[in-house]
Amino acid sequence: MGRNKQFRPGREPLSDHPSLTLRRSHVSGPFSFLNPTWARYAPTPAPGQTKPGTLAQEEEQQQQTPDTSAPPTPKEARSVEHLWRSRDNRKGRHALKVDYRAPTKETGYIVPPPTTTFRAVARGILRMATCAPIWDVSWLVAVTFTLGSVIWIINAFFVWLPLADPGTEFSGESLLGGGISACIGATVFEIGSVLLLLEAVNANQTGCFGWALETELSKVEKNHADRSVTKVKPSEDDCRHHHVNRRNLVGVGRLSSHQLSRGLSNGYTTSSSDGRSFRWWPSWTELRTHYFHELGFLASLVQFLAATIFWIAGFTGLPGIIDHMSQRVTNGVYWVPQIVGGTGFILSGLLFTLETQEKWYRPAFHVLGWYIGVWNFIGGIGFTLCGALGPASSASGVEYQATLATFWGSWAFMIGSTIQWYESLEKYPVEKKRSDDASIQSDV
């Protein structure tokens, strides 16, 4: 069995959770030599998990009607699934997949509405304008890359617009405006890449369900007595991710390590298997046995290395440096770092895209993170193309295409970063189960 079909010992998410059952036939990942990036769980209300104030009513009802409070069967439980995805886990997200075609009277679940409707998306966009959780590293990553993309768009106007419309050019536009904005943009990308790597290193290792399963009495059919059903709703108070903890950027979640140690049977804390709440870098043993097999970590590491190399081009492009170098030196310390760094951006975007896919050849059109990876992949192509054309930019036509590549590449990064910003604030995504979803027909 490939490594992507099963979790390593001690690394299974949510293994301690009494209300979730891992569907082991639905553990998957795009590559057999890497860790799983997808897993599906069937929720089951824990015994005695009853909403306060309804127990006496339920006991009275049970005297008059047959007992209907038994946990749902596996077939019923498949109408609601918890989706564990490695990217969602890093971002502090708790995804559900719901079959809305199955009525509550059959499933026994009262489920939240989907977050893919126009109204839900509009609320998410409004949230982007009104919420600024500066303690959430995933939000900081998204906003930092968005800011960096804006700076690169401004830079592209400085260097491309004079070629497209010479009448708009002003003195020092390309040298001063282009050089300084490029250095600032590269620096912001480097900061975002550092935060991205810290996010991957400090990812939650125990998993987090993030939803409360409350048993309550509800009328699910007209002219019928109330029956016991399970209401599924977000539960931020029980979230183990560090994203909800306003006291730290990464590390321990809102629940302290002491609180978690009492509740977890495997002894793991929310961030690392050795009990540390924050780390700058894993040990060599952890790198070799876990992180080098973790697709999200590899993508973040490639992004960091690419941004670091790309920053060299941002620095050497400053006025007073680039205008005092020969063509050969310029090619070596300015254009080559752009080519290498841009290639790294392409690879990073590709890895982030593949991470969201259950199979390497099957696009995940329904996953928000898939589009983020695709747009970053396109942006990397633009930056690489600019560097590749750079050594021949003495020709006006080549220079035009090189600067234009920076322009559309920056816009691609901007789109991807904006979607990532939206993603970072939608912590409880609810997806509709599709008619062709194989999980409907499979056993737990």
UniProtKB/TrEMBL annotation:
Residues 75-86 have a biased composition (Basic and acidic residues). It comes from the Eukaryota. The chain crosses the membrane at residues 137-163, 175-198, 295-322, 334-355, 367-390, 402-422. Keywords: Membrane, Transmembrane, Transmembrane helix. Residues 1-86 are annotated as: Disordered. This is Integral membrane protein. It comes from Penicillium brasilianum.
